[in-house]
Amino acid sequence: MSKAILYDSTLCIGCKACEAACAERWGLPYDSQIAAEERISAHKLTAIETHGERFSRRLCMNCIQPACASVCPVGALQKTALGPVTYDADKCMGCRYCLQACPFQVPSYEWAKRLPKMRKCNMCYERQSQGKPTACTEACPVGATKGGERDELLAEAQQRIAEKPGQYYGKIYGLKEAGGTSVLYLSAVPFEQIGLRTNVPNEPLPETTWRVLELVPDVVSTGSVLLGGIWWITNRRAEVAKKEGAKKEVRRR
Amino acid sequence: MSRKFPKITLWRAIFAAIMLCGLYATYVRVMYGLAGSTNLSDRFPWGLWIGFDVMCGVGLAAGGFTLVAAVHIFNIEEYKPVLRPAILTAFLGYVLVVVGLLYDLGRPDRLWHPLVMWNPRSVMFEVAWCVTLYTTVLFLEFIPVVFEKFGWHRPMAWIHRISVPLMIVGVLLSTLHQSSLGSLFLIVPEKLYPLWYTPILPLLFWVSAIAVGLAMTIFESWHSSRAFGRALELPLLASMARVLAVLLSVYLWIRFLDMSHRHVFGLLRVNRIETWLFGLEILLMAVPTVLLYQANMRMRPGALYACAVMVVFGFITNRLNVGITGLEAGSGVHYFPKWSEVAVTLSIVAAGFAIFRAIAQYFPIFEAHSRETAPSRVEETEEHLVEAG
After folding, report:
1. I want to staple A89 with a disulfide (CB 3.0 to 4.6 A). Which of A117, A182, B20, B349 is the partner?
2. B326 φ, ψ to 5°?
3. ipTM
4. Do A212 and B176 touch (CB under 8 A)?
5. What is the pLDDT of residue A239?
6. Domain residue limits at B268
7. A3-209 fold
């Protein structure tokens, strides 16, 4: 059981109440200028994008098996049992591998600061762990962003598609993307038309590196035996050669 | 009387200019952060400092482990004369990689964090540990040179006792992190251009690191022979070039096989920047391979040197393609380094050459020290230093 968010693009009216609530929850500035920015950044952790007459919302997908958490060399990013992917700024050394690894291009970095941090939505971990809904779900006036358990939200999404097949594209974004995410999307049109990346593999990305990393003990053990063995053979040869040489010297005398 | 100011030559002036630019770029980096000193962005978080300073730096220092393995584990005695310079290059290389990281990390004061805060599932964590341990190993492999210089026999004997396990550990650590630099990019299958993204990136990185380790050794020998007026160890280098040719053939063959299994040859017909960069990279590896199979090429110092340079540049092109250019289209961003990124990188390289030179002058790095140092030759080398930088 883990928390998730269902965003239904067909219901969204683009009022940006979620943006304002998110900024308030993080203590970030929010004014008309920032509201006009249609891209998530270190000072705007969720953003409403306009695609023609449709809206789309960007926020951290809080993947079930997050690439960011798997690549973080210091374990600053963690997938919690509750669902959110959290970030511990005190551990972060600023390698920015999370930015590189994220298939959804979500994490942002405070590039201009002298002591920068990574920034991303953590699905209101603090609020949710107290049983409260996320700030954005609470703020949404039309129910386009809805919080709840992932299984229940998936069932609901499928039900919405089944009830109004003409109104929906017919697929749920986040069901399988990158092995499944905690943020799910419904849309009237194919997802790339509302700015979502559709080339994300369905395989959980941490698998790609783990397949190699899990070989490390094998490489180390086999390698030490092999290298030690080769050294032993070649040096034995050298010793023998030296002794033979010495014998010949003696004989010659 | 030669203790006066060093003579000002064009190349010394250029060296000084590079270092001054680097110094100013350092000031910009410290005062204005990564935004002021780089062209990085949320969608393109790694640039020249990772793509060149780290990925190429570690790779070009691979001669250290390649030659240690050849001389001490495979017992190929004839390579011994070039072992010390290779170890010194590797040691300096790794120290400079760490310097590069201090520029690149958002919080360089937390460089030590991976040693304390573990995440064994992270490739970067593994690389951090390997690089830390291997730099220590390289230090221990290099320190006998210092002991020898000052005639300290007791620590020498002590270090000699642990030398074999030390060297085996060094080769293993190198194998792990040279390949892991490739594994770093396994996590971005949807971003890295398919000419480079392959599940066998770690294998390719490892094989090419060994090859470039040999190429760098030839490159260094050639330069140092000119700098210190020594005779070039031609038969040795020619025999090494033979190994290099075989290694490059193996590398190219693995790449060919991998590409045919992944059915990506069709991409070569597409007229894109990636296709051309891929072609350049393969050409810079394939041409020296063909040339080095010919005995008369191997025995000609100029040709041998040219081949080594081609391999080095082919290697650099490959690492930059994987680390930077191959990611641009997939990330939807165009990246070109800022002047300060280039300045820092150039000054790190230039400093590397200068420190190598200084150490090689005062410590017994080149064994057969036939010092017929003609002063004009010293200047000549500096030209090449800067050229290479």
Report:
1. A117
2. -65, -15
3. 0.91
4. no
5. 81
6. 10-388
7. Alpha-Beta Plaits (3.30.70)
